[in-house]
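fwd from M.: "can u put these together and see what the complex looks like"

so here's what she sent:
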Amino acid sequence: MPRIETICVGDALPESRHSPTIVDLFFYNAALWNGHRIHFDERYAKEGEGYPGIVIDGPLQGDWMSQCVTEWLGDRGVLVEFEYTNRSAAYLGETLRVGGKVTACDAQTGEVSLALFVENEAGDVIAPGAARVRV
Amino acid sequence: MSHLTPDMLAQIGRSRTPVMELATRREIRKYSIATRQRVAKYLDGTEAPPLFYVALFWDVVSLDRMTPDGLTIDPLLPELPFRRVMAGGIKTRYFQPIRCGDYLVAQRTLTDLYEKEGKSGPLGFYEVTLDVKTDTGAPVLVEKATRILR
């Protein structure tokens, strides 16, 4: 639960690691009503669309980045703006690291800018993101 | 040579009929559990996580309207010379959180359609703006989502 006076540019947000299972992907896609077979049908993902495995949903990775922000923020602030881009796919069996850091902080307005990321096991940022919060 | 004809590009600006949905505790809880949220207000369904709206306003279509790959063709899109759709990204501006019991009205508009040359050939991009308001017209969020076609 950050206070604006204590936030500095470069502060790291708490990191998390995600190793979704096929059950995670089932429930996530069911919650959305997303029937895209690349998220649950390995044979189709490989033979139909040429992926090396079952694809972890891009919006789910976006959600993990938003959790990085909301858990850091607690009830003392509000999310004003949030964005991410899916640059590369991630596949079932991978462990993805999610985190971020403070990139700007305005004590007058209480606005804080954050850079976010989802990184794969090779160390590549596969989904960069950003957020603006008011503390 | 562009794969996007003037007729296709003329679809930019088209909007779908607004839809109203109720954010129920059950739907918020399902989404929160599926995304492994750890904040109590999300898990008990009192307030929705920031990206809950993605699930709330995902098109619920009958199974016979899905293509063999399990997708639905976005009715905002003209017929395009691309076969596959990939997630691109979003940018969302929030005005107030979604809470259990909120009636929300959303309208989707095709706001851009363009193409770029990728490593393995042409890629199409389309941007849809989702404007979500309360049932009394107060702004809740505006999302610009980009999806990639290949």
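replying to her w this: The mean pLDDT of chain A is 95.
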